[in-house]
Amino acid sequence: DLILLLHFDNLSEYGENGTRYHDFSPLGIEAQCTNNTCPVLEQEGKFGSAITLNASVGGINCSNEAERQPSAFTVAAWIRTTHAYSANPLISWAPAGIAYPAVYLPWGGTGPMIYMGYSDPHSNYRTFSWPLNLYNGDWHHVVFTLAGNGTADINTGRFFVDGNEYQAKTTNANTPMHVKQNCFVGASHGDLVSWNGTI
Question: How confident is the model over 30-35, as a mean pLDDT?
Answer without folding.
Answer: 81
